[in-house]
Amino acid sequence: MMADVVYWPFIAVLSIGFMLAYLNPGARNVSVVLSGVIAMSVLQTCQLDVSYSLMFEMWSKSMKHTVVAPVSGRHYLLGAWLFGMIRASLTFAVIAVFIRLIFKFNIAACGVGPTLIFVSGLFLSGLIVGMIIIVLLYTFGMRAEIATWSIVSLLLLVCGIYYPVSVLPASLRAIGYSIPLTYFLEYYRGFYGVRVVPDALAKGYILSAVYIVGFYLLHYLAVRRAKRIGTILKMSE
Known about the structure:
mainly alpha; 78% helix
């Protein structure tokens, strides 16, 4: 859906950008907030394609056809993620143009390499969020549908989307530092003069690998359980 790629990112850029123009918080703080706008929009687009791959099957009551298809779970997830990365790349390009033209901020001012690394971290985070939602859908059925739209908003609170994680209370800060997205944001913001945690990039990739493997195993177990208790038949015609 083009609304996910163009409309909502455009609204986010305008609303946050005009707020920054009014507050005039300084170049460093502007880079912190705008990097959060980028992360929020790209992450949401990428994870929606991963989670929608299952939700569309549930909405159309064709779950049993998906399960009996001659593909494994990893093929299913990888295909959805690849499509999500394509659409998320379009979202990133749209945001980059909007921010450059309207607010004169160059997203790639830190260099093409660091920018691409940052975007790759957003793609990995999108895969992780999508896998979480798929596990919830297989486990709880359509009752977990709300997680598709709400989980990124919850991440906003603890990952420092619009502010450094260091400003959070200690308990929330610990949660924030257990999420890979936090480290990719800190890595990117480090090029704009923001103090970051040591080895942020390595920690982000290591945590991403751990979560992807862990949630893939949970995905496998959730599918087996859904077959055993009849959840898939209940969501099929």
